[in-house]
Amino acid sequence: RRERQRFVDKNGRCNVQHGNLGGESSRYLSDLFTTLVDLKWRWNLLIFLLTYTVAWLVMASMWWGIAYVRGDLHGARDGTYSPCVANVYNFPSAFLFFIETEATIGYGHRYITERCPEGIVLFLFQSLLGSIVDAFLIGCMFIKMSQPKKRAETLMFSHAAVISQRDGKLCLMFRVGNLRNSHMVSAQIRCKLIKSRQTPEGEFLPLDQCELDVGFGTGADQLFLVSPLTICHEINSKSPFFCLSQRSLRSEQFEIVVILEGIVETTGMTCQARTSYIEDEVLWGHRFLPVMSLEDGFFRVDYSQFHATFEVPTPPYSVKE
After folding, report:
1. Contact residues for 100 (Cβ-Cβ < 8 A; gap 6+)
2. CA 245, CA 21: separation in Å to the nearest integer?
3. Looking at the predicted structure, is the pLDDT value of residue 147 above 80?
4. Residue 112 forms beta bridges with which residues?
5. Per-residue pLDDT for 133 more than 60?
6. 41-70 and 91-102 are packed helices; what angle lies between their axes, rounded to 10 degrees?
7. Confidence label for 20 from pLDDT (cuts 50, 70 and 90)
């Protein structure tokens, strides 16, 4: 089996990295929310912790600064003195007051007095700033957790694609399945053939994308994905595999990218699962083993045979031949 660089891995990850952005990198900051959602979990958690920690320390320092300027740190223990914030006499007590106020804990031991206009203004600023930070970071974490990427982990593709005859026509086929009982609403499948080619004008296209027809005209690309389905691409005069034979398959270099899209029934969010097949993963003259069986009152799917194939008599010639 030849090892070569894939455009899309079997798990759906695209092997494309953007470099030398120059001044275009500022576009990421203009859409900061999406940038944070796209970050990996470790960076999200680090930004989450650092933002709250820095905000807490800054706001606690401002409360401590008000108490220091007013002289409350020395007179707070005197019962006849009216401080800005009662029972704030050092930085830890100022930090605890801020946490109690921000988290609305309300122990009642520390509170703002009416003789402190600067404290009232700072309290209003703290409430506004806390609401903004909470809405931004908690919203970002919620969107990050609710992304339907993990739903794609329970969508299966066969390890290999096969080429054999179906209804007297040579077809390229692969299998898809859904491991969950919840359905994929409006599931649709698309296939792209990625192959380098040279145009008649001499232009070389290293990753030219060509659409593979998997039933656009007949509606076969709209899937009712309750049980494993075999997706079929008929090789005819309009297919890019029109000249592909069993012998030429050994020397070809191409990649078939499969994209399955649908709406997750439980959340209503759009999910996309991807995989790819290179030429070494296309088996000529094979067919998938059946996985459905009728039990007492229901149909059973045997996923142990999901990837299994067996050989069938298939002409080694191309459709053109």
Report:
1. 106, 107, 110
2. 43
3. no
4. 85
5. yes
6. 120
7. confident
| Fold exhibited by the domain 22-144 | Helix Hairpins (1.10.287)
Task: Annotate 35-100 with DSSP letters as a single string.
Answer: HHHHS-HHHHHHHHHHHHHHHHHHHHHHHHHHHHHHTHHHHTT-TT---SBTT--SHHHHHHHHHH
Q: How far apart are CA 275 and CA 257, in angstroms?
A: 6
Which residues face 256 on adjacent strands?
193, 277
Q: What is the mean pLDDT of the chain?
A: 86
Query: pLDDT of 242-300, one tens digit each?
Result: 998 999 988 888 999 999 999 888 888 888 899 999 988 999 999 999 998 888 888 88
Assign domain 148-309 one CATH number from 3.60.20.10, 2.60.40.1400, 2.60.40.1220, 3.20.20.70: 2.60.40.1400
Span 114-138, mean pLDDT?
87
Residue-level length of the chain: 321
Only one residue has tokens 């998997």, namely 214
Q: Which residues of 276-299 are buried (b: 16+ CB within 10 A; e: fewer)?
A: bbbbebbbbbbbbeebeeeeeeee
pTM of the prediction? Answer: 0.75
Number of C-beta neighbours around residue 58 at 10 A: 11
Strand partners, 253: none
List the domain boundaries for the chain: 22-144, 148-309
